[in-house]
Amino acid sequence: VSEEARSAGRLADGLGTTARAGAASRAPLNSRREGEFGAVYSANVSAITSFFARRCTEPQTVADLTSETFVEAVGSFHTFDPDRGSSRGWLFGIARNVLARHYAALHDGQRMAGRLAGRLVLGDDGIDELAGRIDAQREGRELLNRCRQLPELEQAAIELVDITGLTPTEAAVALQVSPGALRVRLFRARARLRKETRPS
Amino acid sequence: MSPFEDQLWSHLADRHDAENVIARRSSRRRPRTLTLTAGAAGVIAAAVVTVTLLVGGTTSTPPAFALTQNADGTVTVTLNDVAAGIPGLNAEFARLGIRERAVPIEAGCTAGPAVGYMAPLNAPGINGMSTTFTFSSATEHPGYTGFIAARQVGPDHVEIAMGAMQNGMIPPCFPEQTMQVIPVPGPGTSTGTITSSSPTTTAPLTMTTSLS
Fold first, then answer.
1. Is A33 within 8 Å of B9 when comparing Cβ atoms?
2. By CA distance, what is B4's nearest residue in A?
């Protein structure tokens, strides 16, 4: 099992997770709904890429998992209901599922890339860019290690809210728990981390 | 957006999943054009073909495959189930005298590297397309047989790529790692040019495809 697989459940830092504002209305996606998805993409692609860059050490893997997330998102966009939560929570829920499948494939000794619907072949520029993003997440991976003793849900709550910048409500959508439950777990996780870092 | 984000966006825009969303939302149908690169090694003549395909929907209980010979000589194929549909589809090709073969794309396939029709190894995977497509067969190209490479990616969801190889060189399966599909933007009927990537092929071929 690779380092990536062992990294499952770790948390990460908050670098590079600032959401981008504004829609990306670009040809050939030029209908109203296409514009809506473009806006969702523009607002979240950086955060989703960073999410995977915190978990993976290979640029191509980051590209594939990011691509897979958005391929799944565009395929199910007709089911997305903004009245039930923001697109960020919805997208991160997809990203977590994609990551879980990736880890499962690694654990089984398989390469997921060959089976990914969203396979995206990087050029040299893309590799350099994503290598930089992965490098920028080094500090986050250290933080991730500190949080490994937390229950998985608390790790995820810390990552999505305190590191990635989702609101508790958005994180609750991604984690498929109630906002109230999310806040409770977040409070517990923060308290545990504070206690752990306090000098004895 | 960054170069990677731009590349990913273009990738999404070219994918049929995006196309399906667009089609559902805009109630119109748009063609997709793909280029399949199936390179060659050694003495094997593989081909590159650009094919215009139309993204099509499926019914609630679609057949494993369907084949229709159109009045203009083109052939419309629907393939919803690779495992169940390919044997019957190939039988229909043979019965109708259409020199095409459907070939499954399988992760565990070893036939591809063994016979050497390799596409660029740095571009594994298939970024494919639809379950229904119309094409003209390769029968008009003596010495070549067209192939339809198909991979099951979900229930009633098959990715397709097409090409042609010298007669007798089409393997029983394609490995995923040996093929690359490059989306080419541009709607409408198009003519694809088959150009051999093998030094042993003496003349380029042309395969004309049309929209249903």
1. no
2. A126
Rounded-to-integer distance, Cα A108 and Cα A100, Å = 12
The token duo for A78 is 């007709």
0.80 cut: is pTM over it? no
Using a CB-CB cut-off of 8 Å, the residues of chain A touching B125 are 113-114, 116, 119, 121
What values do phi and psi take at B108, rounded to 5? -90, 10
**A to B CB pairs, distance under 8 Å:** 98
State the smallest CA–CA distance between residue A41 and chain B in angstroms. 8
Query: Which chain B residue has its CA at the smallest distance from A42's CA?
Result: B1
Interface subset of B 132-171, CB within 8 angstroms of A = 153
B147 contact partners, CB below 8 Å, separation of at least 6: B100, B101, B102, B103, B162, B163, B164, B165, B170
What Rg do the C-alpha atoms of chain B give, in angstroms? 16
Residue B180: partners with Cβ closer than 8 Å, 6 or more residues away: A121, B36, B37, B119, B120, B123, B124, B125, B126
Widest CA span in chain B = 53
Complex confidence, ipTM:
0.73
In the predicted model, what is the mean pLDDT of chain A?
74
Spatial distance between the Cα atoms of A115 and A98, rounded to a whole number of angstroms: 12
> What pLDDT does B206 receive?
29
Contacts of B97 (CB under 8 A, 6+ apart): B139
A90-100 pLDDT tens trace? 999 999 998 88
**Residues A137, A138, A142, CA angle at the centre, nearest 5°?**
115
pLDDT of amino acid A150: 87
Cβ of A126 within 8 Å of Cβ of B123? The answer is no
Burial classification of residue A180, based on how many CB atoms lie within 10 Å of its CB (0-12 exposed, 13-18 middle, 19 or more buried)? exposed
